[in-house]
Amino acid sequence: MQSFFERYYNINKNLMSMIGGWPAQNIFMKILMPTVIICLIFTLGYLEFVKIMDSWRTITEDCECFIIFVLVTGGYIKISSVVLNTKNINQLLSVIDYHWRVFVHSVEIQIMHDYAVAGRKITIFFIVTFYSLLCLFMAIPPLPKLLNIIKPLNESRPNIYMFDVDYSFDREEYYFTVLLHSYITAVIGISMLLSVDSLYIVLTQHGCSLFAAVGQRLENLNSAISSWKDNELEKTHKGGLANCVQYDRDEKIYRELIVILWKHQLCLEYVNLLNFSFGHFSFMYIFLNMMAISLLLMQILALMDRKGQMIRFVAMLIGAFGHLFILNFPGQRIMDHSSDIFDKAYNVLWYKLSRKSTQLLSILLYRTLSPCTLTAGNMYVLSLINYASMAQTSFSFFTTLSSLQ
């Protein structure tokens, strides 16, 4: 287990260890890291709550406050999915270890390797993308200070803050302390998001690799069957010897179909466990994501004449759409790969099989008739079609909020 985990999932292990979410970590770090994260998130949420209570106006005028509330709530859900899901994550990792010990055919190993490497590359891509957006977001606040040095004016430019919160003291006097707190909170928040979502991606990739491995065995089986010639036995064998060769072939096909059915059952069990572990949290993520997109669009619209501040929220908007995509794309992958099993089983030359083999093939076709899905709270199927639907709903909600101005 340790060898392939270090080879394929070491990035995910390091990210999860940063937030105390890796099952193999010692208990002290599992308690310390989430506690620190919860405290940091609480400080941001509490300070924002104080500000909005002191100077409540309207939802459009206090849009940035509501954006921060949504982000804080999302942070709590993310850390909860780590703390409350440790047992399920550990079980998923143990099941993956079991799969690497039972999917031992050379073709299966190669497929699982390819998908694990692809999952690693996707993780790196999202890490680079989200941290780049974070750097863009963090680069705006100190910009006036730099411009005052490089190109000074008759008066100092006003300071820009990452989060519009009430610190109950003079923010101008303690500007760099406030900026440091904002930076630490933002980095931890993004790290937590990437930790959970990248793990979700690689776990889904493993499920796709299992379906791909089963599908490849079906293709190899069909190729072997199609290579038979209808009159091959009659030409080369006589009497009982021909029957013996035919019986051996039927038995090999039958045993291969048993293995395929068993491994397909492992695929279904794994996807069900994955859906059970992340489904309810995904529903909350999607709802908050849609709220965040709508509020961010409102804030960008309000800052059209202040390009410098608007860039921060454009970066957040890109991140929100990216996060929504991350939630839906793995579900689409699972659907596509599980559907492929049905197509490949349907193409098997059943008329060349024995009766007992066709019965097994019928069971496989019945099981794969409906594709596997990942859901959000068992109410919403995660797919690219629904991703577009959710994006459209976010724009509709944005239009509704804008009409309140």
Give the amount of beta strand, in percent: under 5%
By helix and strand content, what is the structural category?
mainly alpha
State the major sheet. 2 strands, antiparallel
> What is the terminal-to-terminal distance?
57 Å
What's the number of extended β-strand segments?
2
The helix content is over 70%
The residue-averaged pLDDT reads 82
Low-confidence stretches: 233-239
Number of helices: 13
Radius of gyration based on Cα positions: 27 Å
Shape: elongated
Task: Give the spatial strand order of the biggest sheet.
Answer: 1-2
Number of domains: 1
What string gives the helices and strands in order?
Answer: HHHHHHHHHHHHEEH
Q: SSE layout and pairings?
A:
Layout: H1 2-8, H2 10-18, H3 27-54, H4 63-83, H5 86-102, H6 106-139, H7 143-150, H8 175-226, H9 232-236, H10 239-302, H11 307-346, H12 355-368, E1 375-376, E2 380-381, H13 384-402
